[in-house]
Design goal:
Blueprint lengths: L1 E6 L6 H10 L4 H9 L6 E10 L2 E10 L10 H10 L4 H22 L14 H16 L4 E4 L2 E3 L3 E4 L2 E4 L3 H6 L5 E3 L9 H10 L14 E10 L9 E9 L8 H12 L1
Parallel strand pairs: 1-4, 5-8
Antiparallel strand pairs: 1-10, 2-3, 6-7, 9-10
Length: 265
């Protein structure tokens, strides 16, 4: 079984995930062709290799060619875009799942219903492309299950459509329920709502909703997706792709007997 493991030592965002997928072997031309099936105009993709603190990775930037007048979309608007697209059922289902998670987290924070939530940043074209592009990338790599490392829980403030919010933003933190979190002293937004929604949708969980640790994996590919910040810690998301395996450890009978004799001596 092919699995993916996201090592989020410097957080996660939608564009970092796109970069990691492309760097890990997703064919860029084929990926662009699939993304075009979204049938959303007004943007272009910039993909380039960059170096972050000595480690090279792929930087993906969704550049808006015009003002996205409808950036404040509702859940029904997102669903209509996905349903009218030529994307595969798997991609549409996963992408809609991520947006549903976002809607429920925002609704809980703002005491509204998911249907009435007015997406701002995550309803913009660039966020839609990030979410759909990540779903396409996983499908192209043939990934069946996804796992992730513990996530950095840091501090600070971030400006968004609702004003100044603590880091992680409240809706982002809701999306991280069930994930293991580790303290981090960096005072920057390391986990974006888009990145959190993608992980929340992708990562395997137990019946109680807690994320599962990755099983043993035979590594096949590694990719690094670059973020837009620079610091002493490389602003990268590391992706490992491989196959699960079971390995029977056989101890030679002579070794076993020798061990017993040593224990009794």
């Amino acid at each position: 079984m092919r699995i993916a493991y996201f090592d989020c030592f410097s957080g996660v965002s939608g564009d970092m995930m796109l970069g990691a997928l492309l760097h890990a072997g997703v064919d860029e031309a084929a990926w662009r062709n699939e993304l075009a099936k979204l049938n959303v105009p007004g943007y272009e993709l910039k993909v380039e290799m960059v170096v972050k603190e000595g480690i090279s990775g792929m930087d993906v930037d969704v550049v808006l060619l015009e003002v996205d007048e409808a950036h404040g979309r509702h859940l029904a608007d997102i669903e209509a875009i996905l349903n009218k697209s030529g994307l595969s059922d798997t991609v549409r289902t996963r992408a809609m799942g991520a947006f549903l998670r976002l809607a429920h987290s925002e609704a809980k924070i703002h005491a509204m219903t998911p249907e009435t939530i007015h997406f701002h940043e995550v309803g913009a074209i660039d966020a839609i492309v990030d979410i759909v592009g990540a779903c396409i990338g996983l499908e192209m790599l043939g990934v069946e299950k996804v796992y992730a490392s513990p996530l950095p829980l840091n501090r600070g403030w971030v400006e968004c459509a609702h004003g100044t919010m603590p880091v992680p933003a409240p809706a982002t933190l809701e999306l991280l329920a069930g994930f293991p979190l580790r303290p981090d002293d960096r005072s920057k937004e390391l986990i974006t709502p888009t990145g959190a929604a993608l992980l929340a949708e992708f990562v395997e969980r137990d019946p109680l909703g807690d994320t599962l640790p990755a099983p043993p994996m035979r590594l096949r590919k590694v990719g690094y997706g670059a973020g837009k910040r620079d610091s002493w810690i490389p602003n990268l998301l590391r992706l490992m792709v491989g196959e699960t395996y079971t390995e029977a450890i056989k101890i030679p009978s002579g070794t076993r007997k020798a061990g017993k004799r040593a224990a009794h001596s």
